[in-house]
Amino acid sequence: MTGAVRTGLRGAAWLLPAAVVLIALNLRGPIVATAPVIGDVRADLGLTASIAGLLTTIPVLCFALATPFASWVIAKADPERAVSLSLVVVLAGTVVRSLPSSVALLVGTAIIGIGITIGNVVIPVVIRRDTSPERVGLVTGVYTSALNVGSMVTSLGTAPIAAVWGWPVAIAIWGVLAVLAGIGWTYTVGARAAWRRPVAVEPVVETGPIDQVLGTGSIRAVDGGAGTTPVRPARRLITWGLTLAFGGQAFSYYALTAWIPTLLHDEIGFSKESSGASSSVFQILAVVGALGVPLLATRWRPRAIIGLVAFLWLAMPLGLLFAPQLWLLWSVLGGAAQGGGITVIFIVIVRIVSSDADARRMSAFVQGGGYLLGSAGPLVAGSLHGATGDWTAPLLVVLVAVLTLGVVGTISARRVD
């Protein structure tokens, strides 16, 4: 018989990925928008180096600390409204941050972090719900690729705009991306009515003790796992494993993102300008990993992909430690690995959840704990460099984080083989 109706977007193959790309451009780019003009910002507002460093640390801390709030918002509203709210909050934070005040700068950054956190949690839920199983990996790869494209575009475009109109305009203008994403998402949600898909529901006659609970001839939806209550994420061993793996990925990424320009300046003698441009290789190569992993996922087991990602990731700290002059090669391998790392973890999450609510809880738990670990990356690496005077200790810590991703992630992914 035909009963419940699925209101996803599976009938429009291109619509959801296009909307996801527009949204993802707003979920990393705002974090790096101030970096190219931080000198001008410090000069105008009289910021210390420590306060300036908070402009990168605050959003990552929000990813961890605001994740329970984001999960609550998604539960109280629906995913459609949560995505819209995420974009509105990011836009509001972008406007506030552009005001010529140190307080507004920090408050706006925190608002942006909260908005991005909501988006971080809800987008995997939307992808899982509205994408056919055979395309989940591809759409996830498109999503993570767009995250890195957003960072690259913002990094490259902010300084030239500031040279013409000043830094407040240069960091405010990226709010246009939030407006465009809002328009695209509104159109996508509006198109749902045209793509309603019936879901087969079959009568199930239960006997014995289960029948006493559900009732003879009770109706349960075949699609979506109705009638079952998923185990809470904190009570599942795989959740803790994925959280540690995600934490290893995030710690390595943010530690290297923060300090690669300085490392290249110290070890190779690059100018500060050249070091900053060279580090963009590490960012843009993530697109290769983000799109490559879904293709591998059609033939390889997730644990094998995580093993490959970790192997490539190791080239970055080891290469910079023993042969920094080959930084371009290590950046290519490490960049592809970091894009693939976050993608394969999201794919594993999508495969193990049993419902939209389960996806929301699992995504929030893994990202909240993982980003909490990741937020320590820049601080730990910088502190070790300051204490030792060289880059050996920071790179060894990144090496341990990458090994955590590989070992714990491989063991955890065995559940979905």
TrEMBL record:
The chain crosses the membrane at residues 12-31, 51-75, 82-99, 105-126, 138-159, 165-187, 237-260, 280-297, 304-323, 329-353, 365-385, 391-413. This is MFS transporter. SUPFAM superfamilies: MFS general substrate transporter. It is found in: Cell membrane. Coiled coil: none annotated. Its main location: membrane. It comes from Curtobacterium luteum. Keywords: Membrane, Transmembrane, Transmembrane helix. PANTHER family: 2-NITROIMIDAZOLE TRANSPORTER, PTHR23523.
